[in-house]
Specification:
This protein has one helix at 7-15, and strands spanning 24-25, 34-35, 37-48, 55-61, 64-69, 76-81, 87-92, 99-105, 108-113, 118-123, 128-134, 142-144, 149-152, 157-161, 168-173, 175-176, 179-180, 184-190, 193-198, 203-207, 214-219, 237-243, 248-253, 258-266. The chain is mostly beta strands. It has one domain (4-266): Neuraminidase. The protein has an 8-stranded mixed β-sheet with strand order 18-19-20-21-3-24-23-22, with no helix packed on it. Strands 4-5-6-7 form a 4-stranded antiparallel β-sheet, with no helix packed on it. A 4-stranded antiparallel β-sheet has the order 8-9-10-11, with no helix packed on it. A hairpin with a 5-residue loop joins β6 (76-81) and β7.
């Protein structure tokens, strides 16, 4: 994650990309206008979440949550019981690694780190680390489309990586009305779209993976009450998990004491 001293300039860059809502937007490159939808939410269920977990990646799989947590000396990969928040399995990362995004593909878990350019591959059933890999730049969020790993790095770029060689074979630039949307963080691939938390905001961008254009915004402002909000300014919304079988959506944040199942409502 960027240092908090950079928040003001980063948020200023972000705000230029989302100043209008619910309108058709045309890109500066002459592309046809795209109607950008806007969504709010309703809370369906509330579950406990470890308030010490600096959530960087979140995945739902076969009834359990899998989570990557950050901060040096506190980073981990863990399996969690949804209803209780109980940690069922856990691997702690070495002190030098700041855990970031996480995704599951073909019986394996892939976890990246922030600035060390190191990634880890685990056998999902046993949590045994079976290999490591390298990549260029910072690691923020991670998901997959069934074929490629998709990684964010805090910019407006999403990189597609081969899950076998980890070579980057495609880069997509994310824009809204032609403006770059930066600070793309935790990712989830849902129904053919890439959903991305935007760091230090209460918003999720829904992105067309082919063009990189934002096709919808989800505003989750007010999801966590002021009483539950962490004192740490880094305790922001981050974590999207989707249950494909039951069409359920889960969200949480860094150091949040609660995890929410929500349903979207179009404005």
């Amino acid at each position: 994650m960027p240092k908090l001293t950079t928040i003001c300039c980063l948020l200023a860059a972000f705000s230029t990309g989302c100043e209008t809502r619910g309108v058709e937007r045309g890109g500066s490159n002459g592309q046809a206008p795209v109607k950008v939808s806007n969504y709010s939410y309703e809370i369906i269920n509330t579950y406990p979440h470890d308030p010490a977990a600096y959530t960087q990646g979140l995945v739902y799989h076969e009834g359990s949550l899998y989570e990557s947590t950050g901060l040096n000396g506190q980073s981990s990969f863990r399996k969690i019981e949804l209803k209780t928040g109980k940690i069922l399995k856990k691997v702690e990362l070495e002190q030098q690694f700041f855990g970031e995004g996480l995704t599951l593909l073909d019986g394996r878990a892939y976890q990246i780190t922030w600035q060390t350019q190191n990634g880890f591959v685990y056998q999902l059933e046993t949590f045994q680390m079976i290999k490591t890999f390298r990549y260029l730049g910072e690691g923020w969020g991670l998901t997959h489309d069934g074929t490629s790993l998709i990684m964010s790095n805090g910019s407006n770029h999403l990189s597609y990586l081969n899950p076998g060689t980890f070579a980057t074979h495609r880069v997509v630039s994310v824009t809204d009305g032609g403006r770059p949307i930066v600070n793309l963080n935790e990712l989830e691939y849902i129904k053919g779209e890439i959903w991305a938390n935007v760091w230090m905001t209460d918003r999720i961008a829904r992105i067309d993976p082919e063009s990189g254009r934002v096709i919808a915004w989800i505003d989750l402002k007010g999801l966590l009450t002021p009483e539950d909000r962490p004192a740490d300014p880094g305790g922001v919304l981050n974590g999207i998990a989707y249950d494909r079988e039951s069409d359920r959506l889960f969200v949480t944040g860094k150091l949040w004491p609660k995890l929410f199942e929500i349903r979207l409502r179009e404005r």
